[in-house]
Amino acid sequence: MDAYYFTEMPYPYVPEAVEDEYGTSRVLLPNRYCDPQLTADLYNRYLDEYEYADELGLDLMLNEHHQTLTCLDAVVPISAAALVRRTRRARIAILGSPLPHRDNPVRVAEEIAMLDCISRGRIISGFVRGVPTEVQPSNANPVFTRERFEEAHDLIVKAWTTPEPFNWEGRFWHLRYVNVWPRPYQQPHPPIWITGSSLESVTWVAQHQYTYACFLTPYEWTESLVNAYRRVCQEHGYPEPTPDKFAYLALVYVGETDAQAQEDGKGLLWYLQRRRHKWLNLPPGYVPPDQMAKAYRGVGGKPYAESWEGLQAKGIVIAGNPDTVIERVRYLHERCHIGHLLMMMQAGPMPTDKVRRSLELFAREVYPAIRELGVRQEAPVS
């Protein structure tokens, strides 16, 4: 099992009363509440912590969101560019590039190829449809985000793998010349990961044999998605998927003792407790009508309102001393076939000393015990 350190690079200085006034932490919250000097301090702190995770032997994950206090990492190629020169060994999983909201997919192909070359092949290219609140900042039509995602994906992959100029005539993009320089360092292209949490999305990912990444889904939900991926493989005659085809994001905190981890780890709840405006979070057309009707009735959805204990019971939070965390990660792997553990280990105002200590305990005491999970053993020579 591979482990990846992650933070959304939050801006934790907006009073909750202000967030309550606007009813959301995204899109509508005025940027006058964002102090550039504090932001500069935060960016450099977060990059330092990523660099420290690399020194400890962990891989790294980055993501991108827009017009929100929860995520200052608004342009993930920039943060990735900073890290490829500040780290030496870590793979950098970009989860990811929001394809429906980018004006030109060829630019995405160029950015990832350039990062892959500078890092000498340490980039994992994650493509995402984007959460519903990305629709407003990009002025996108929510009805077409799935179709735009798939066409952008096809164009990028062709740009990476075609060794000569070609033209593209699609539904959303029309290009006379596509001829990406540089080519990716990894051939034919960097590993592609796709995020999702629905049966609709997992079918497409399994058909392309990409790694499927689930974010903060309960055990049962994650298990059902993994089993759906397996069924698609069986139907198409693909090999049985190995754990490297599945990644899972959890909130993770490792403490000296269970009691200390339970107390300090609650800082991760800051992310789940941010206000999400109902109408911004579910624009008409983003999901099928039956799913939208259930959401408006409060049926389904990720259980972010669960108690701290309930979130741990569902696997969304993994917190404890090293032995406890080892036990829970092993259970996640055995039940859900997970081969990549994505760990949000910092959120909100959590101080850097506690984040770094949690990182140290994971890297030095947990990781050695779980690293071999999912590694295929060579058959003995008879």
What does this structure look like?
The chain has helices at residues 16-22, 36-55, 76-86, 105-118, 135-138, 145-161, 199-208, 219-236, 258-265, 269-272, 278-281, 289-296, 308-313, 322-336, 352-370, and strands spanning 2-7, 59-62, 92-98, 123-128, 166-169, 174-178, 192-195, 211-215, 246-254, 317-320, 340-346. A hairpin with a 4-residue loop joins strand 5 and strand 6 (174-178). The model is unreliable at 377-382 (pLDDT under 50). The protein is globular and about 60 Å long. The chain is an alpha/beta fold. It has a single domain (2-370), classed as TIM Barrel (Alpha-Beta Barrel).
Keywords:
382 residues, alpha/beta, TIM Barrel, two-stranded antiparallel sheet, 15 helices, 11 strands, disordered C terminus
Annotate the secondary structure layout.
Layout: E1 2-7, H1 16-22, H2 36-55, E2 59-62, H3 76-86, E3 92-98, H4 105-118, E4 123-128, H5 135-138, H6 145-161, E5 166-169, E6 174-178, E7 192-195, H7 199-208, E8 211-215, H8 219-236, E9 246-254, H9 258-265, H10 269-272, H11 278-281, H12 289-296, H13 308-313, E10 317-320, H14 322-336, E11 340-346, H15 352-370
Parallel strand pairs: 1-2, 1-11, 2-3, 3-4, 4-7, 7-8, 8-9, 9-10, 9-11
Antiparallel strand pairs: 5-6
Helix pairs in contact: 2-15, 3-4, 4-6, 7-8, 14-15
